[in-house]
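Long-time lurker, first post. I've been practising inverse folding by hand and with some scripts of my own, and I keep getting stuck on stretches where the structure tokens seem ambiguous. Below is the full token string for one chain I'm working on. Before anyone asks, I'm not after the true native sequence, just a reasonable design that respects the backbone. If someone could post their per-position residues I'd love to compare against what I wrote down in my notebook.
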């Protein structure tokens, strides 16, 4: 079953009197449970594509189906609801809330989905333990290493049991040891059946995916399937 399907997808930015195409007639399908990497040079459209897939941005034209729903022209509040319920995000800069501790950061998505407080706290602790932060539950981001912050971000991404997880350079700010630990966590999520879409410039990371999609000038230039 396709969880993501785009057809003739375009994203155009108007800069003065000029039109800049970030995505151009892009067709892409991602199957449920797939692990896909997106690669390409700077300015090729990688992050724009991830933002559209994640309902953080809308296409200028073309269609985007998330599961069985066309989300191409939904209003911002409808897209926000979909993001909260179906999509988990992992960012290079972690994007944790500095004033909140690990448990509270993990609880944030559940708060917006209306989870009862006791239920969200219990699930947050389970997720923190699952990513190896059981001894850091009351620590704030400034008291954590980069790897620990990214583990908290992964736990937060899993809070609402999303359909898919989107990651933009998830190991970009980490040393090699911490990066390897995060990649093992992502491997484990894929083995558990999660759909993963990762933007990366690192060939070593891309090799872990089942499929690598290469973008150039907002288009799919080529695709490669890795042997598993």
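-- Answer (accepted) --
I ran through it position by position. Result:
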């Amino acid at each position: 079953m396709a969880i993501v399907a785009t057809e003739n997808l375009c994203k155009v930015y108007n800069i003065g009197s000029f039109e800049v195409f970030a995505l151009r007639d892009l067709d892409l399908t991602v199957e449920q449970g797939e692990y896909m990497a997106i690669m390409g040079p700077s300015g090729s459209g990688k992050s724009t594509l991830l933002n559209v897939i994640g309902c953080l941005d809308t296409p200028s034209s073309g269609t985007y189906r998330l599961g069985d729903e066309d989300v191409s022209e939904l209003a911002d509040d409808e897209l926000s609801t979909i993001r909260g319920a179906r999509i988990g995000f992992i960012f290079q800069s972690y994007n944790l809330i500095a004033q909140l501790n690990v448990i509270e950061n993990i609880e944030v998505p559940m708060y917006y989905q209306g989870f009862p407080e006791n239920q969200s706290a219990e699930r947050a602790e389970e997720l923190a333990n699952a990513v190896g932060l059981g001894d850091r539950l009351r620590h704030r981001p400034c008291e954590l290493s980069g790897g620990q912050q990214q583990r908290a971000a992964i736990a937060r991404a899993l809070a609402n049991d999303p359909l898919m997880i989107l990651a933009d350079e998830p190991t970009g700010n980490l040393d090699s040891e911490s990066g390897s630990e995060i990649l093992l966590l992502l491997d484990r999520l894929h083995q558990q059946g999660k759909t993963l879409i990762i933007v990366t410039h690192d060939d070593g990371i891309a090799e872990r995916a089942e499929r690598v999609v290469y973008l150039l000038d907002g288009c799919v230039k080529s695709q490669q399937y890795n042997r598993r």
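A couple of notes from the structure itself: Helices lie at 46-53, 76-86, 102-112, 117-130, 146-157, 176-191, 203-206. The mean pLDDT is 94. Happy to go over any region you disagree with.
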